[in-house]
Amino acid sequence: MHISVGIIIKDDSGKILMIDRKVYPYGWGCPAGHADKEETPEMAIKREAKEEVGLKIKDVKLLYEEYIPWNECVKGERGHYWYVYTALDWKGKEIRNKREVKDLQWIPLHQIKNLNLEPIWKYWLEKFL
Question: Is the pTM of this model over 0.85?
């Protein structure tokens, strides 16, 4: 079973950093990815945030932890155990990973529901919003 991690990063005005994925599963979502075998979920999300959007995550809080049987990834694996965090402290300037990310924007909460969301982030953000 794959372990997946995701993180909700807010700026000082409450906007959420969203990315439009260039690789499957397509759509807008928050930084996310798989945990490597030697990583804890917290280590994995800090690595993924740095890789995808260039931010150094200093501190996180776990929001959700759940097995999602319908969630499919680029590797064709169906069913992932998810850990979703919020960033409590982060630094840096966002930089788009050109291989994985088509676009990156700080989106106000009220506009997120208008995006073509990646299915798993539609699920997570409905819990959050």
Answer: yes
